[in-house]
Write a structure and sequence with these properties.
minor pseudopilin epsh fold; 30% helix; membrane; 159 residues; methylation; Pilin-like; four-stranded antiparallel beta sheet; five-stranded antiparallel beta sheet
């Protein structure tokens, strides 16, 4: 049976504009309110790990490009910071070559054994880190722990 053309039914439901508006408003509210329930420590740990990762890759690349024996390409891993050594193997005084872990602490392991901090990782011309013969794991320990790995062949990646 077909409805006669003169009879119209009342429309029920929402229009597409109303649905999209409600979804946008709920999205804005969830972002504004959701941030109150999550603290920044997990995000800070990931950012610290990524900064250390970038610093380690930079030193590794410099070691592979400058292969003369007079250059020193090393990272000093302390309990709350990672620093780059200058060409004379002295610690750099520049703040942009230091990554601070803030309230987080750092732990360095070689295979299954923990390494005493501060520890120096020297990169050779092949990009391999000394003291990482079995692979190293640098962990940023806080509310949410994150880590980066330095493989024995020199590959540096988040793990």
């Amino acid at each position: 049976m077909q409805a006669s053309p003169g009879i119209t039914r009342p429309m029920t439901g929402f229009t597409l504009v109303e649905l999209v508006t409600v979804i946008i408003v709920l999205g804005i509210l969830s972002v504004a309110i959701g941030s109150r329930f999550f603290d920044r420590s997990g995000v800070d740990d990931v950012v610290t790990r990524d900064q250390i990762l970038a610093l380690a890759r930079q030193v590794q690349m410099q070691a592979m490009q400058r292969t003369d024996s007079s250059s020193c390409h090393s990272l000093l891993v302390a309990s709350h910071s990672v620093r780059v050594a200058d060409a004379n193997c002295a610690l750099s005084a520049e703040d942009d070559l230091t990554v601070g872990a803030g309230s987080a602490s750092l732990a360095l392991t070689n295979g299954a054994s923990a390494m005493a901090l501060p520890a120096t990782l020297v990169f050779n011309a092949m990009g391999q880190a000394s003291r990482c013969n079995n692979g190293c794991r640098l962990e940023v320990q806080s509310a949410q722990s994150t880590a980066l790995c330095i493989e024995s062949q020199g590959y540096i990646h988040p793990c």
